Amino acid sequence: LNGLPPGSTIAMAKCHTDCIELPLRMCFREIGRFIGTHPWWFFIVPIVASIALGSGFYFLKERTLNDIEKGFTPLDGPAKKERTLVEEHFRPNESMFSTLRLTSDGTFACFVATSDSNILTVAALQEILVLDSKVRNLTVKFQGEQLKYVNICATVSGGCSSDAILDIIGYNASNIDVINLTFPIHPSKAGRVSLTATLGGVIINNNSVVQYAKAIRVFYYLQELNQTSEELNPTSEELNQISEELKQKSDTWLKEFVSYSTSKSRQWEFDRVPSAIVPLFSATFTITMLFAIVSCSRLDNVRNKLWVATIGVFSTGLAVLFSFGMLLLFNVTFFMTVSTTPFLVLGIGINDMFIMISCWQKTKVCDDVADRLADTYEKAIISMSITTLTDILALYLGYSSPFLSIQNFCIYSGTTILLSFVYNIVFLGAFFALNGRREANNRHWFTCAKIPEQRPPTQSQWYGVFCVGGAYNHDTGTEEELPMSTFFLKIYGPFLTLKWTKAFVVVLYAVYFGLSVYGCFILTEDFDLRYLATDESYITKYYDDEKHFSQYGPYVMVVINETLAYWEEEQRKKLILCIDEFQNQSYVDQNISLFWLNYFQIFANESGLHTNSEKTFKSTLHSFLEQQPMNRQDINLTEDNEIRSSRLFLQTVNVNTSKLQTTMLKGLRTTASNCPIKLLVYHPTFVYFDQYNVIVANTIQTIAVVSVVMLVISLFLIPNPLCSLWVAFSVGSVIVGVAGFMAFWGVHLNSISMINLIICIGFSVDFSAHVSYAFVASTKDDVNEKAVDALAQMGYPIVQGALSTILGVVALAFSDSYIFRIFFQIIFLVIVFGLIHGVAFLPVFMTFLTT
Predict the structure, then answer these.
(1) By CB atoms within 10 Å of each CB, which of 20, 66, 246, 449 scores lowest?
(2) Phi/psi of residue 201, nearest 5 degrees
(3) 3-class DSSP state for residue 595?
């Protein structure tokens, strides 16, 4: 602005762009008049429509999809494509089960036993063996038949797959005293055995012999038989029963140090989360209605807006019923994140109601009811339209997110907010007219009996309290000003426009903005799978105990995705150089890898065979695979006995944070792409790690696009370009503040918090748009007087809207689900910062560069 010619700022401020704003106000003025003339139709039809479309809830269970992978991982993530390719090239051998070679989590139950001291003692291992026996003796009923674990277990060479540690000690606890257990690899008769997934919190000596271990993890894998493996998976209740029985029989360390989980536990616990939202929503609905009733109640027995507040809350409920039912009838998937939508819409709908009430109170009491409603719509529609359009577009643009959970939330929330706006205009507006008719006849708010405006001299004081009403300001012809409006007009507004107060506000903003920017730099990405379960879930302890195994990450599969002449030394050198590049990375263990070609070469050397020719190589390979059939799963042979593709496994280390996991994933993929041989890397966890590659960029992109759209909307609907820029500034400032203070509050950036950041834009517009438009619409000449006038008109409705929104989500703060608590935390930040901008920062800043 300083670079503009003299007077340019003033010229810009005085430029009015009302080519859309004015026709829109006139259009809704006529709509208000029409609704005010025929209120009963517009009151009854929306109720009938909501009841009719509410029938869609019949399909809620059928349309519900809570699959964690589908909801919280990128729909087109690279790891999903890599998994498809791996499954095409490598078929599992059901008789030679291997966890390394799984392309998914598999079907399993497991437990983690921990100890305050060394767990590798005879006493501790005896108790673990007791627990192991109980799990192996589990029986489940399937299709009328009792099946034992041995009937459905994943098998290796004809027997159930077993735990490495228990195998090493021969299922005899006393053997631990005579075995020199080495870590991370222990040599055994069956070959080199990796203990990285089995033994945790390990301390070793210089010879890699284990001196101490904190935890043991034991897995029980079932056959991958589709429906059978799904239904035969031990339930949490069965595992809990085993644990409780063991605790009753034991008075040793195991009582408090066993946690357990299954491959389905995460999904089971996630499916339980929505059931906790029903009582919370009931409490929220009640609290919000009580607040709306109290804040809209008047001592005047005619002007009391209690029923308007009640119908305003009811209007939001009807909008939710209509939109949810309609989308369910249209076969739109319902994901669990949509459960927070009613809380969001309730706050927005009530906020619009407060604006409408404020504008109604500024109409002429003696005018016809239809004219009063027309005036109300003309005054309120711009503020309501800016916030509604921004909210809707923010959510519909958020539908472009690669996460199904966000897409579903955006389509449900955007549609419901649109319907809430329509219901406020049609249904709530009709009730304004009906209530206005009661007021016009000076009827009591409760009994609807006609009452006098003044207390007759012959009546008592109590009669004056309960049976008198209808007073208004005869000078202005409008209803009496509310005490809070007077507070903003007479006290707060003049105080805020004092020079020293403005200086303090500027300093306060500088501190706020500085802290916010710093917080943005320390904001981290993280998506811990425990977030999907409740705090009281049994798997929470299991995830806590898993930290003992965090030193070593997953065994990453490296697929050689081309036909390679493995017998040629030049080809081998290229491949070895690529493998060396992988192992030179800080997150890959240089000494641990599993590659069939290495074992093949050892086999050939021991047999005295040279494999430098294709014929010898292939004949030796056949003999090798007969002796070591497990490696057969790592080689994809064609009918012509050509190796179409093969794979090896690398052990990763120290990747226990989302940042390290992202670095590892990017580094491995980059190394694979740089190799002259066609390679790809894969592990089932990469499906979840993929979100870290897109979440930041997608969040920034969505917020940027929505912010631009919001600015365009403001330019069209606020008849002053400079004020539109102030709204955009306020929105950007709130977003930065929310993102920054998320870090201070311990909230991480992930697909769950991204949902709320999209909402952030819509809510932050609410307050700034109301104040900015009121500032522009003010007829005062002095900028300070304009600010005071804007606060007098919109200060109280903004505070009402902020408090009602916070009350609408406060119940979520007490939820035992991370997802709902995060929703509360971010909405709380948005509302608090939006409110401060609306009633403090923005009014002051507009007095500096607006005339």
Answers:
(1) 449
(2) 60, 45
(3) strand
395, pLDDT greater than 70: yes
Q: How many CA atoms lie within 13 A of 59 on its CB side?
A: 16
Given a contact cutoff of 8 angstroms between Cβ atoms, the answer to whether 222 and 107 are in contact is yes
Contact 232, 206 (CB under 8 A): no
| DSSP structure class, residue 488 | I
CA-based max dimension of the chain: 124
Residues in the chain, overall count = 851
Nearest to 806 by CA among 780, 785, 784, 825: 825
H helices, E strands: number in the chain = 34, 17
Quick one: which of 770, 735, 732, 740 has its CA closest to 756? 735
Pairwise CA distance, residues 270 & 820, whole Å: 12
C-alpha separations of 279 from 271, 274, 337, 826, 851 in Å: 16, 10, 17, 21, 50
The beta strand positions in 801-851, using DSSP E, are: none
Residue 221 near residue 107, CB atoms below 8 Å: yes
Contact 757, 401 (CB under 8 A): no
* CA distance linking residue 243 with residue 255, whole number of Å: 9
169-182 pLDDT, tens digit each:
999 999 998 888 99
Q: Say if residues 191 and 631 touch (Cβ distance below 8 Å).
A: no
Peptide bond into 184 cis (omega under 30): yes
Q: What is the CA radius of gyration of the chain?
A: 34
Cis peptide bond upstream of 78, omega within 30: no
Residues 6+ positions from 326 with CB-CB distance below 8 Å? 53, 56, 415
Q: Report DSSP letters for 623-675, one per residue.
A: HHHHH-GGGGGGEEE-TTS-EEEEEEEEEEES--SHHHHHHHHHHHHHHHHHS
| Distance, C-alpha 750 to centroid of its chain | 7
Q: How far is CA 755 from CA 399, 404, 706, 758, 826, in A?
A: 10, 11, 13, 5, 10
Separation CA 324–CA 418 (nearest Å): 12
d(CA 418, CA 349): 10
C-alpha count within 13 angstroms, C-beta hemisphere, residue 373: 28
Q: What percent of the chain has pLDDT over 90?
A: 37
Question: Comparing C-alpha atoms, which of 836, 842, 840, 834 is closest to residue 347?
Answer: 834
pLDDT mean over 253-263: 72
Give φ, ψ of 87 to 5 degrees. -65, -30
pLDDT of residue 231 exceeding 60: no
- Token digits of residue 224: 């991958």
Assigned token pair, 165: 């540690």
Report yes or no on whether pTM surpasses 0.85: no
Q: Which helix (H) or strand (E) holds 554?
A: strand 552-560
Would you state the structure tokens that stand for residue 193, as one six-digit string? Answer: 């055995």
CB 220 within 8 A of CB 155: no
pLDDT digits (tens, 9 = 90+) for 506-539: 999 999 999 999 999 998 877 777 777 888 888 8
Q: Which helix (H) or strand (E) holds 461?
A: helix 461-466
Is the model's pLDDT at 5 over the cut of 80? no
Alpha carbon distance 691, 68 (integer Å): 13
Distance CA 825, CA 828 (A): 5
Two tokens, residue 466 = 């309960």
N-terminal to C-terminal alpha carbon distance within the chain? 14
Structure tokens at 221: 């894998």
Q: Is the pLDDT of residue 554 over 80?
A: yes
- Mean of pLDDT values over 205-222: 91
CB neighbours (10 Å) of residue 315?
A: 29
Confidence of residue 18 (pLDDT cuts 50, 70, 90): low
| Whether residue 630 has pLDDT greater than 50 | yes
**Of all residues in the chain, what percent carry a pLDDT higher than 70?**
92
pLDDT digit string (tens) for 352-376?
898 899 899 989 999 999 999 999 9
